[in-house]
Amino acid sequence: QQQQQQQQQQQKVAQQGASEGAPLVTSSSGSRGITMSTAAHDNYPSGPPGTGGIKGGAAAGGGKGMTHEQMTLGAEKLGEGAAAMYFTKHVLDTLPDHKLPEESSSGDVVYRHIKDMRMFDCNPRLNLASFLTTWMEEPAEKLILESLGMNHADSVVYKSTRDMENRCVAMLADLFHAKLEDQPQGCATIGSTEACLLGGLNLLKHWKAARRAAGKDTGSPNFVIGNHFQVCWEKFSRYWDIEMRAVPIKEGQYMLSPEAAEPLVDENTVCSVGIAGSTYTGHYDDIAGLD
Which 3 state secondary structure label does DSSP give 275? Predict the structure, then answer.
């Protein structure tokens, strides 16, 4: 029934194009439902790139380009944004590499280019190896879209963001049994890397302050971590010149234990880092024991 409706629509478009004096080239595959004028056929004898090649003969007569009606069937199949790109000269455009283009492009065309670039990327739903969200409920996605225009760092203008941030910090502190009298503190970050860098920097400053108060040197800090660490801890080590002492993880022992960490701890140790969920196995380090 759907194929019959497409054929009827093709005939309707063809009749309308003939009445306007615009001969058509029709696709050899009725399921594609794509029509072109002779002018477009002259530009792309084998069909526009990206359409799989449209075959057919042009009727005699001079067409002056593709009308909106002649693009309707393809647009219905691909969407208006796709038609704006694949049925026009923009199909030959390339995204700029080093400098801004001389002319602007419509949002639909740019969207299609970027979407096509991502065709061979990994499907996020199947990616369990890196730090991303594989699935999110629709209301959460809706909130993210509605929040794109907000500057969440400006708590003066967007007061609710600071309130939500404080609530999240309090919940995480309670989850890990922080004492309220110790006044646990925290802040929202862009991702886990920034969180680790800021947390490590905070511990480094506390360590340096304690060393200076005791009249001791602050030139050789280190931290202890299992060698199943995330790459952000290498950044922490390099950015602030801190020696990283990685404890080997072996078969049957997939997390950092206090017994393995203790021999590497000395007076220059800023912190021992426990990983709450190894990316290899999901194991939690003994956080309480390390503390």
Answer: coil
